[in-house]
Amino acid sequence: MSLQNAVLATLIYHDIFNFPLTLGEIYSLQIKTKSTFKKTKNALGELVHRRLVGEKDGFYYLKGRGKIANLRLFRKKISDSKFKRALFFAGLLRIVPTLKLVGISGALAMENSHKDDDIDLVLVTSAGLLWTTRFLANILLLPFKRDPKGVKIANKACLNLFLDESALKISPQNLYIAHEICQMKPLWDRDGTYRRFIDQNSWVKKYLPNWEPEWVVNGKWKMVNGKSKKINSLFTIHNLLIENLLRNFQLAYMAKKVTTEKIGDRQLFFHPQNVSGKILQDYSNRLRKLKITIK
Fold it and tell me: How confident is the model at residue 220, as a pLDDT?
């Protein structure tokens, strides 16, 4: 795939979300074609010259889509407010000693939230204590969680992804999941958990070869949350009885509500619908219309 087509493919993907990109974002999120920043900049300049791509206030978008530049600024203001709310949730979750990482995902992570959106949280737990940690996190955030019936969700906490630290690799491996991993923003972590999460999901480079976490400077990692904190030894001991009791209790509670959720022993994905498949199909259709092929 030519570099110009790679830049177009990148803009097409984000156009699905009505999200124009800066030059830096185009380079970082460039799909399936590794390049230098200078080469990406030159390819983008050619596309602007050919009027296949427009630019406004430093945001680049597909021809005829200039309105989404203003939309991004509008949604950023909404996202700023929600981000403060997310920090509040993350601060409360520090109380749970078996939590190793708390981050945000979805639209908020890209500063592209709608006003009625909830706040998607990603939580990584100590090994063997996923269900215990989920129980404690849900109790702690109970007053702030989204309505179970999905009626009241604006600014509510949505605990939509739990990972045991011994199972950080996410599948399936596709472009949508790669984006979700790369755009996730850690709010705090313990014991370098975010770094291990990225290392375990290095496969994202297959789809986004230029991407690097913003906590990597000159090839070296910076701490996301300063010094690691020790977890109370009471909670580092794997209590199989309590973990199994809480697992069985939560599974029984969820039994009649499970739809497209992915529930495993070490990973929990709570999604109301198959977003990934719909987005990738839409993306494929858009590429086909512009006769762009991705290998």
Answer: 56
Residues facing 159 on adjacent strands: 121
Say how far apart CA 105 and CA 198 lie, in whole Å.
14
Q: What is the pTM of this model?
A: 0.89
Range in 40-49, 74-83, 227-236, 244-253 with the lowest mean pLDDT: 227-236
Strands of the 262-263 sheet, one edge to the other: 185-189, 99-104, 119-125, 157-164, 267-269, 262-263
Average pLDDT, the chain: 89
* HEC secondary structure over the chain: CCHHHHHHHHHHHHHCCCCCECHHHHHHCCCCCCCCHHHHHHHHHHHHHCCCEEEECCEEEECCCCHHHHHHHHHHHHHHHHHHHHHHHHHHHCCCCCEEEEEECHHHHCCCCCCCCCEEEEEEECCCCHHHHHHHHHHHCHHHECCCCCCCCCCCEEEEEEEECCCCCCCCCCHHHHHHHHHCEEEEECCCHHHHHHHHCHHHHHCCCCCCCCCEECCEECCCCCCCCCCCHHHHCCCHHHHHHHHHHHHHHHCCCCCCCEECCCEEECCCCCHHHHHHHHHHHHHHHCCCCCC
Does residue 260 or residue 270 have the better pLDDT? 270
CA 225 to CA 238: how far, in whole Å? 25
Domains of the chain: 3-65 (1.10.10.10), 76-274 (3.30.460)
Residue 275 pLDDT exceeds 90: no
